[in-house]
Specification:
binds zinc ion; five-stranded mixed beta sheet; 5 strands; alpha/beta; single chain
């Protein structure tokens, strides 16, 4: 579903414009968008305010449930360990992500959270969707900060 990933990448662009690390996320159920979010760790002075966590909180509040059954998450970058944990607790059905994150990713790199023994729910994972644009945004962001 490139349309939803395009929305996630647009959220990443908006995050970059706020000076945040450019990561964006969208949560979808039955083809309808429940929540969109971008990183806001600086703005909120909150190290947990990653795009995925903010989108999960907003979607859960919207449907009035701690479990996002049948919901899918689109995120521009491979989730970190914290977000992978949140995705598991939220019982998300599918995870679609863009660029791989060899340094901080926890899905197909490092701790590989979803295949670790402490993980009790793993989403179906689809990677590499829109990764060139998501990766380009991140590279541009970090190049500008140097
Ligand atoms: Zn994260």
């Amino acid at each position: 579903m490139p349309g939803f990933m395009d929305m996630a990448i647009e959220e990443a662009r908006l995050a970059a414009a706020r000076g945040e690390v450019p990561v964006g996320a969208v949560i979808v159920r039955d083809g309808a968008v429940l929540a969109t979010a971008g990183n806001r760790t600086l703005e909120l002075s909150d190290p947990t305010a990653h795009a995925e966590v903010l989108a999960i909180r907003a979607a859960a509040a919207k449907i009035g449930s701690e479990r996002l059954i049948g919901c899918d998450l689109y995120v521009s970058l491979e989730p970190c360990a914290m977000c992978a944990g949140a995705i598991s607790f939220a019982r998300l059905r599918r995870l679609y992500y863009g660029a791989a994150d060899e340094k901080g990713g926890a899905v197909e790199h490092n701790v590989r959270f979803f295949s670790s023994p402490g993980c009790h729910h793993a989403p179906e994972v689809y990677s590499g969707i829109g990764e060139s644009e998501a990766g380009r945004l991140l590279k541009a962001f970090f190049a500008n900060r140097r």
